[in-house]
Design goal:
Length: 398
């Protein structure tokens, strides 16, 4: 986004207690070339598999129509007319909230029957003024009137947009201290979280909100529970360097890039770290912690001024596998690949600098097939970080 603004997108979900499928669907997409971010939260009627189908269809249609910038009322009408009809309630029903942020922070919001979108500005929760439209949903000869809300707002640095399903707002309903649910309490809770940590990430904020809702229901959620947050702020940068440059004349350039970089720095590879230490006149210290060595990955090292120093291809391959298998939301392990992931998760803009000098060891046919040459590994990691974690990734070969 312009003026050095970045949109961090985060979400967290829990299934209704005892269900194997979540009736809510969250879709988050970023379009770096358009500098645009779109988020959709849909809640299907009821819970379980049927609700999952309804919400998935709704979220997918909403996302695709919004990508093409289709008119709002037409989008809502097509979604409602397309959904299958519930046999008991005789309606096709799935709620949705669509948030579309452009490169200038100008934001379009479309809401249908979800709890209202919240704007957190200067640590305080604000409700958004919306324009309402009425849409008729037809089921045979019967017609139902639905109300869709449309809002336009300009986001500022430090703003957060928070939306959740009614699994949050209705959590604890019927309890003596929450007879009507947690809607007002959720807003107060959000303000307390932001006051406690003004830089709390989007994913951490959503996780805390959903976990608190679960506690309201005595750790047995009575409904599918989802939360989405979009956090507008200055970008956090991370540099990952791996591999020696194609020619030795570029060694000095590599060291200069690392020493002058404004952000966190990771160096992956034994030869690469030796080049950096030599050019910057620093010492390399190897971490001989036996617990980390027992993890199966080569140990980390330390160079003054570098946040993390690891082995190269094997560790990067392990990182790629974590991303590929969608294990990045699991509790982190204490090894080099997971430690790289921690930095990646906390960054917004990731610059990857890859040396292209051929490492003879990687051409050994006895090595595992998945041990690809460095440039292919880094291309795959770039793709996975962009698609799975919605980060901006710049890849350069030297």
């Amino acid at each position: 986004m312009s003026d050095n603004i970045f949109v961090e997108a985060g979400s967290f979900q829990l299934n209704k207690y005892g269900n194997i499928a979540c009736g809510d669907t969250v879709l988050l997409r970023k379009f770096p070339k358009q500098e645009r971010c779109i988020a959709v939260l849909s809640d299907g009627l009821g819970s379980g598999i049927k609700a999952n189908v309804l919400s998935t269809m709704t979220a997918s249609m909403a996302m695709n129509f919004r990508i093409k910038r289709e008119p709002i009322l037409r989008t809502a009408q097509i979604i409602m007319d397309t959904l299958p009809v519930d046999s008991k309630r005789n309606i096709s029903y799935s709620t949705f909230t669509i948030i579309d942020i452009d490169e200038n922070g100008e934001t379009r919001v479309v809401e249908f029957d979800n709890p209202p979108l919240l704007l957190v500005r200067n640590g305080k929760v604000q409700h958004i003024n919306s324009e309402t439209f009425k849409i008729n949903e037809k089921n045979g000869e019967t017609s139902y009137e639905r109300v869709v809300k449309h809002s336009l707002l300009s986001l500022q640095k430090g703003d957060r947009l928070v939306v959740y399903s009614d699994g949050v707002s209705q959590s604890g309903i019927g309890n003596p201290n929450k007879p009507f649910g947690w809607e007002d309490g959720a807003e107060t809770f959000i303000e307390e979280l932001v006051a406690e940590d003004n830089n709390i990430s989007a994913r951490d904020l959503t996780k805390k909100i959903v976990k608190k809702a679960e506690m309201n229901d005595a750790l047995k959620s009575k409904d599918d529970t989802s939360c989405v947050c979009l956090y507008v702020r200055e970008p956090r940068k991370l540099l990952i360097c791996s591999g020696p440059p194609f020619t030795e004349e570029k060694d000095k350039y590599l060291a200069e890039v690392i020493s002058s970089y404004e952000g966190k720095k990771i160096v992956c590879g034994g030869t690469t770290s030796q080049i950096i230490a030599r050019e910057l006149n620093k010492e390399i210290e190897v971490d001989l912690d036996l617990d980390k060595i027992a993890s199966g990955l080569p140990p980390e090292s330390h160079i003054e001024g570098i946040d993390l120093v690891t082995e190269g291809i094997i560790t990067l391959g392990a990182l790629g596998k974590i991303l590929e298998e969608d294990r990045y939301n699991e509790p982190a392990k204490d090894d080099a690949a997971w430690n790289i992931l921690k930095y990646v998760m906390d960054a917004d803009i990731i610059d990857i600098l890859v040396g292209t000098k051929i490492n003879v060891a990687h051409q050994d046919p006895s090595l595992p097939v998945e041990l690809e040459i460095r440039r292919n590994v880094m291309k795959r990691i770039k793709y996975l970080i962009e698609e799975k974690l919605l980060k901006t990734v710049n890849l350069e070969f030297i």
